[in-house]
Amino acid sequence: MSSQLALAVRDSSTMLRRNLLHARRYPSLTLNLLLTPVMLLLLFVYVFGGAMSGGLGRSAYVTYLVPGILMMTIGSTVIGTAVSMATDMNEGIVARFRTMAIHRGSVLFGRVAGSVLQSVASVVLVGAVGVAIGFRSHDATALEWLAAFGLLALVALALTWIAVGMGLGSPNAEAASNAAMPLILLPMISSAFVPLHSMPGWFQPIAQYQPFTPAIETLRGLLLGTHIGNNWWIALLWCLGLTVLGHRWSRAQYDRDPK
Amino acid sequence: MTGLAIAANGLRKSYGDKTVLDGIDLAVPSGTVFALLGPNGAGKTTAVKILSTLVRPDAGRVTVGGHDLAAAPQRVRAAIGVTGQFSAVDGLITGTENMLLMADLHHLPKAEGRRVAAELLARFDLTDAADKPASTYSGGMKRRLDIAMTLVGGPRIIFLDEPTTGLDPRSRHGMWQIVRELVADGTTVFLTTQYLEEADQLADRIAVLHDGVIAAEGTAEELKRLVPGGHVRLRFTDPAAYRAAATALTEAATDDDALTLAVPSDGSQRALRSVLDRLDAAGAEAEELTVHTPDLDDVFFALTGAPAVPAQSTATTARTATAGTATAAEENAR
């Protein structure tokens, strides 16, 4: 059993190295995915900011916006995960891996580990842009910063597994990109850009309980000291549920005989 | 254990209601080259996918390298190397990085991995391109890198699915040389091909796969014997001469559109003279005469029922060929 675990760790880290090599060799692939959240951040702060913030002022709106943009960054990064997973499946290289005496799940584990690392790096980059245009967290303790990072990593893990499942289920890269679209569209209808109470009443429950809003509200609470309420455990439940679901879905698809 | 590298009994596989493999048996002795020959869509790739653990069969017992495919797939995987029809290289990274990836997955120590990678890249003439991304390689280079990657773990049994499809003649001959070297090292090679010449050149034993069943199996010589005799082909330009000759040579298969006759013949001087004498007696003069000795093409077409060559009038063991003979006889009777 322990030798099985050693095999899993060893082969998964080989696969992780391969994915990180891709990311390092072709940084434009990763950076392109950051364009959407960064553009939206700048657009909403400098163009729509005046109308959106409702007289709050630009710096207050930047502070409101950044936590949501960080979550959206994860959604955007994992679209790349879905695309590269689908590409891998079509390239024949995964067929080669399947005929080798390696740990069966290592292809997926390596992909997920790489994608989570990529997401965290992306969050740091986009976060830096946020700080550059005026985002400040005044009273967050070291523990709260740690918890914020932990939350971002958990969201990245959950969304990555879902994206891997989408990539495996798509016949090609284009289809994978389309399938993963909701991961960047969902933040649009969350509390990322405007507070829930400004939305129509019938829509508020949808916006409130979809995965992004509780995560964004928890992040805001940790970094800005706003009220977290029950958002933290709803966010954790979402992360746990999506991770388990995405993992099972991905494994089932991967174990199925290829066409 | 047994001297068989690959043994399959009653292998079946269907996708939906389309039966791809309808109970095939295979026996490949260790250290030999076995060719699975068949037209596109015959089920060759499916057979390779099953034998290489990629796809599970619906029924049938298979052992590869002495290990049961269903019970111990990981042991089978440890014994084999697979080069599929579509290149299984990572185009985004370099040739060397592809090789080192394989070395890592085979758990070779770092230094040994580097040595094996460099050796194989040199052996397959890829040293100059080793540090370029594999996506920039030509078709032949990709195929060579693919095989080099397959060899990293030193597999005892290698599957090559249509290794030369899409390659230019020079690359194809290079690939044949590679296969010969592998066998010289004692490796068992299972290859699929749609080229008869390739099977004839490389394989110790050949199985012809057609419509999901093995239509014939044996050495190239044995298969050629399945279609006895060659034929003399006579081409006419004058329809009257053609009709006269067809009347005189009753055993010939006729092709009224092309004005050609195919007279069964072993190609000997005596047989040729007999044909010529009967043509003279009928007063028919052929525009062109060619002697066709049997090769694997005849076997292939006879077994798979392709109409390119007129069927022999002598009875053969092949089912489809018998049908061809009947129509030829009917035409002769007219």
UniProtKB/TrEMBL annotation, chain A:
Keywords: Antibiotic resistance, Cell membrane, Membrane, Transmembrane, Transmembrane helix, Transport. It holds the Pfam family ABC2_membrane. Its main location: membrane. Belongs to the ABC-2 integral membrane protein family. It is a multi-pass membrane protein. It is found in: Cell membrane; Membrane. The chain crosses the membrane at residues 26-49, 61-87, 108-133, 145-164, 176-196, 232-250. The keyword Metal-binding does not apply. This is Transport permease protein. Residues 28-257 form the ABC transmembrane type-2 domain.
From TrEMBL, chain B:
The keyword Transferase does not apply. Keywords: Antibiotic resistance, ATP-binding, Cell membrane, Membrane, Nucleotide-binding, Translocase, Transport. Residues 314-334 have a biased composition (Low complexity). It is a peripheral membrane protein. The keyword Ion transport does not apply. It is found in: Cell membrane. Its main location: membrane. One of its GO terms (molecular function) is ATP binding. Residues 6-236 form the ABC transporter domain. Residues 311-334 are annotated as: Disordered. SMART domains: AAA (SM00382). Belongs to the ABC transporter superfamily. Drug exporter-1 (DrugE1) (TC 3.A.1.105) family. This is Daunorubicin resistance protein DrrA family ABC transporter ATP-binding protein.
